[in-house]
Amino acid sequence: QVQLVVSGGGLVQAGGSLRLSCTASEDTFSGHVLGWFRQAPGKEREFVSAITWKARDTYYSDSVKGRFTISRDNAKNTVYLLMNNLKPEDTAVYYCAAGRIINAITVPSEYDYWGQGTQVTVSS
After folding, report:
1. Alpha helices in 1-124 (DSSP H)
2. SS3 helix, strand, coil % of the chain, rounded to 5?
3. What is the pLDDT tens value at each position of the chain, 124 positions in all?
4. How many helices (H) and strands (E) does the chain have?
5. Alpha-carbon gap, residue 124 to 44, rounded angstroms
6. DSSP state, 43?
7. Separation of alpha carbons 16 and 118, rounded Å
8. Which of 84, 109, 83, 113 is nearest to 98 (CA)?
9. What span, in angstroms and rounded, lies between the C-alpha atoms of 13 and 31?
C-alpha cells in the first residue's frame, strides 16, 4: 500500500524554525518527484517546494524562497522541508506529495500520492 507519512509540524513563534519529514514506501519514493504543498483555512492548496528524484533540481515558491530548504535522503525514503524564519502567513496544513511524471511541478493534480497533513502554526 502506498503511504506517505508526514511528521514535524507544530507551534512556533515568528522567526523560529521547524523541520517537516515525509517518509514514503520504497515504491512511492523511487524515481518520484517529491513535493510539499500547504493549505491555509479558506484558501486553495498551494505549492511550496519540490525536489526531483536524484535531487538534481529543487523548486520553491517565491513566498518561501530563501527561507525553506527541501532535501531528500533516498536511503531512508525520506524528504525533508527545513523551514527557517517562519512567518505568521506560513501557518497552514502542510502536505507531502509524490509523482512519477510531473509536467507542472506546482500543480497539485500532477501528483499521484499524498500524505496526511501536518499543522504548522506560526504565532506573531
Report:
1. 26-29
2. 10, 50, 45
3. 668 999 999 999 999 999 999 998 776 677 889 999 999 999 999 999 999 887 789 999 999 999 999 999 888 989 999 999 999 999 999 999 999 888 899 999 999 999 999 999 999 9
4. 1, 11
5. 23
6. S
7. 17
8. 113
9. 36
